[in-house]
Design brief:
By secondary structure, the chain is of the alpha+beta class. The chain contains three helices and five strands. The two termini are 20 Å apart.
């Protein structure tokens, strides 16, 4: 709860969510209502669906464009850090169009993150 990095707090929440101890549930409830980051608070909320999709439905192709911090157009060869569903982090460098492409990204949300300094 006290770590400065949103990525660390969100991944800790995912670990706690996989457990069943009452103190873990209480910590997740506090996180969901009190964390200063909406991304971390979302990771602390319990999942509503427990059904697992078929193997074919678990992945999809994704293309995203990487913008510089103050730019409004894609930036070629820009470094990126992308967070996929489940807290999976992938880092890389955008192509000459300023894009990243993942032909087998897991289903769910995708977010470009600022790399920790």
């Amino acid at each position: 709860a006290g770590d400065a990095s949103e990525l660390v707090r969100a991944n800790a929440a995912r670990v706690l969510a996989s457990r069943t101890a009452p103190e873990d549930r209480a910590a997740l409830d506090r996180c969901a209502t009190n964390d200063r980051s909406s991304d971390v608070a979302r990771a602390c909320r319990p999942r509503t669906s427990t059904a697992r999709p078929t193997t074919e439905a678990r992945v999809r192709a994704v293309t995203a464009y990487v913008l510089g911090e103050v730019a409004s157009t894609p930036k070629p060869r820009a470094p990126y850090l992308v967070e996929l569903e489940g807290g999976i982090l992938r880092a890389g460098v955008a192509d000459r169009r300023g894009a990243l492409h993942d032909p087998a990204a897991p289903q769910g949300e995708l977010a470009l993150r600022r790399a920790p300094r």
